[in-house]
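Obj: model holo form, ligand = iron/sulfur cluster.
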Amino acid sequence: MIDLPRHNANFCAEHLQEFCRRQMLKAIDDFEMLARGDRVIVAVSGGKDSLAVWDMLVEVGYEADGLYVGLGIGEYSDASGGYARRFAEGRGLRLTTIDLRDEYGYDVPTAARATRRVPCSACGLSKRHLFDRAARDGGYDAVVTGHSLDDEAAVLFGNTLRWDIEYLARQLPVLPATNGFPRKVKPLVRLTERETAAWCLVRGIDYQVEECPIAAGNRHLGYKEALNSIEKRSPGSKAAFYLGFIDRVAPLLAGATVAAAGGLSACDVCGAPTTGTTCAFCRLVKTAAAHEPVPVELVVHSRKGR
Ligand code: SF4
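Output (holo structure tokens):
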């Protein structure tokens, strides 16, 4: 039996799966994320959330392929790629792998050092660009990510602490396709990490348990811990916080984002939509690939020293 305090209930394996499927389908319906027959590409990290959402989507009948991006974060990336590959092979699913070092001549630690960006910023930019491009090139209807209720509540918490209206206005479970960028959807926003871990357990899915070593001590994890401690005392707080925001506050913020509409042209290197001449990804590649490789330990060590 699996105990889910926020529902004040214990679930057997069968009912746990039914519960997770229902929550995912409710999110898809409520937020009009996907239509029946949509082809989607899942951003796969090898962790529980992305493998769970891929598994659930296939199980309920969506045509879903996976894309794994090898970030070059030492052993963590090697192991994560292995989990993604074994999952796909075991189920006969199509997984595309892009290795940043092999295909673009850099990795995340090197990009962070070369551009003097925080590693997560270089990492996020690389992943967004490659997922968008894969969706465009492959004719997929949407990019799916495994963001859970814990992720979304933690991001909301951080954005609220800073009253970052621009980010708050964009923190939606579905972003429509616009200006050459594909639709992006987060079907797991009604499920916690504990619930997706339980899904993986009952479905026999092996996943990367380790956190990315670069994440250690970052603000996002701090927000998660703070919310976990509130949730422990008051089960259901996380869902009330995030889903209440989406229901009652997000509509009030609609229009508060700076419209990225007009003025986009094709990147002169890769053809992706961009506001400048060369897109941010191609500029990153140029700088990072020219830098000598930086071992992940150096980046982790320097972040701990802050
Ligand atoms: Fe990338 Fe690691 Fe940062 Fe996640 S925590 S965005 S995997 S560098």
